Amino acid sequence: MTSEDLPKSVLKLDDVQLKLNSDAGAVHILRGIDLEIEAGETVGIVGPSGSGKTSLLMVIAGLEAVTAGRVEAAGHEVSALDEDSLARFRRDQVGIVFQNFYLVPTMTALENVALPIEFAGTGKAMERAREQLEAVGLGHRLTHYPGQLSGGEQQRVAVARAFVTGPRILLADEPTGSLDQATGEEIIKLLFDLQKTHGTTLILVTHAPELADRCSRIVALADGRIVGAQMAAADD
Fold it and tell me: How many structural domains does the chain have?
């Protein structure tokens, strides 16, 4: 299925609020976020530390329950799903790439990438994992464990794992934050190449303006609110 076959809007947030309790009292993380993203769009989320960027990704993925408002993603009302339904939603619709790679250290690269397919029970896990690792340039590192891979290679495995189930939404939270500049540029190029190939909606949190500029749109956050949005000239 291509992006043209999908509904125009793949993600919609209406007045999304997130409030967490702390010893010092309630902390308002998100303060009324209204955002709509089209299928196949690439969106850069920017803003200072503590502005709510990562929390925004967490509520989209259903990893953090909103205090108020509504989140609709890939045809699901995420904010109304129970835990089992949320797990299925993430398994089937969402890929996530973090700054830290979160690979299972006792599993090979191939086994790490096959894991989401095995959870989904859709079959041919190892074959599909091998294909995805070859797509990220790691066909020669299938049997290596995370500890035997460089940081860039580990992030390539994480990217392969995120794309292997064909998610409609890919969330990337500072995916180059643990890498040197040259390796980070390779990972970003890989992310955007795979996004184009799969027609995936990409939401990229970054502190780097040059990375955000590669997206078709940039959304700026500050103090839990959207304070600006602009179209960006996506880099071919």
Answer: 1
* 157 found inside a domain: yes
CATH number at residue 194: 3.40.50.300
Q: Which residues contact 197 (CB under 8 A, 6 or more apart)?
A: none
Give the range of the structural domain holding residue 114, as residue numbers without chain letter.
41-62+83-231
Q: Is residue 70 included in any domain, yes or no?
A: no
CA-to-CA distance for 27 and 53, rounded, in angstroms? Answer: 15
Structure tokens that stand for 156 in this block: 């390539």
Query: What are the tens digits of pLDDT across the range 88-137?
Result: 999 999 999 999 999 999 999 999 999 999 988 888 999 999 999 999 99
Beta carbons of 31 and 221 less than 8 angstroms apart: no
Give the predicted TM-score (pTM) of the model: 0.91
Who contacts 121 (Cβ-Cβ below 8 Å, separation ≥6)?
none
The verdict on residue 13 lying in a domain is no
Q: b/e per residue, 179-190, with b = 16+ CB within 10 A?
A: beeebbebbbeb
